[in-house]
Fold this sequence. Notes:
heterodimer, A: mainly alpha, B: mainly alpha, 6 helices, globular
Amino acid sequence: xxxxxxxxxxxxxxxxxxxxxxxxxxxxxxxxxxxxxxxxxxxxxxxxxxxxxxxxxxxxxxxxxxxxxxxxxxxxxxxxxxxxxxxxxxxxxxxxxxxxxxxxxxxxxxxxxxxxxxxxxxxxxxxxxxxxxxxxxxxxxxxxxxxxxxxxxxxxxxxxxxxxxxxxxxxxxxxxxxxxxxxxxxxxxxxxxxxxxxxxxxxxxxxxxxxxxxxxxxxx
Amino acid sequence: xxxxxxxxxxxxxxxxxxxxxxxxxxxxxxxxxxxxxxxxxxxxxxxxxxxxxxxxxxxxxxxxxxxxxxxxxxxxxxxxxxxxxxxxxxxxxxxxxxxxxxxxxxxxxxxxxxxxxxxxxxxxxxxxxxxxxxxxxxxxxxxxxxxxxxxxxxxxxxxxxxxxxxxxxxxxxxxxxxxxxxxxxxxxxxxxxxxxxxxxxxxxxxxxxxxxxxxxxxxxxxx
Lengths: 220, 223
């Protein structure tokens, strides 16, 4: 247990270090976030609540695809072979998922602040929305981590990730949008806890499935 | 010959029974539904068939991952293919039904959306398969996706419709149908005629396709 957590930590540290060494890709995603929000601002101005909410989550989805696609797709065949020889697939996918979730949390904070700066700030409960968006960013990043692993096997095809991922993510995204409408008004709505529990159990299921299934993707 | 193929005959006679008793038999007069309730034998049976085929497909995918037999992969693919056909037919029969009861072919009902999502997911499965040229790799990766997608999809089909309001019958409890609307006569035709009949027909179609695929695989391997 202790050994595997140390291994996972080492793998995460490797990812963070790589991110620091190759800053261009991080800044690339950041610029992608900024320009997407700017284009949305030019197109929509300051929209009303429901549109604001919908746009925010769609933007999260696209950021997630482009941020996570690069973590798997930038690895060449040689490097994959190297990881294959030094660590087990379970450690590898867990480390990657934790790293991706952290990356998406950071992106979420940046995009949320930019988004409210440009597209207006209609929230009644900002802290609640922040919590929901962080939770959502983590859930979405978990799903796309696994799909990126599949897409990376399929000839490094980034478009494939969107084809595989978008239908799968719709139910989760719908639940998240429903949840986040709570942050817009003072009216208390029931069903909050059941949706949160449902989403949390989804996340657990995704992690378990990835741990079971990733070894099959790994061997070549 | 008869002993081996009895279920094909059974499927034929069950469907014959479903069509005759379904179109000519008496149905209870319900408000709004009226005579359209006969669509139960076709629309709902399609969804049952689709679910069964997708479940069988995922079982074969798991078997493939465990034993690496190419025949399991072929079974998984062909059952998924038949499942998609049944799903499409279910969507079409459902929207025709919706036209006469809800007033529109498509009304963004959570169940219509769920069905559309399910079809998109399985179409993506075929895109993924075809994007890989290596046979073994394509089989393994698509099996992994099949298991993952199945596990993601079915909770949403079974749970989410119970959380959101819908025009579709059976909001509470059973997500597919409201058992109070049908009488005992219809129940017999539905459970003993339509569902086994259509499902067996689907299995028949699938076995024809798998036989063809297995033959072509053999041809490829041995020349």
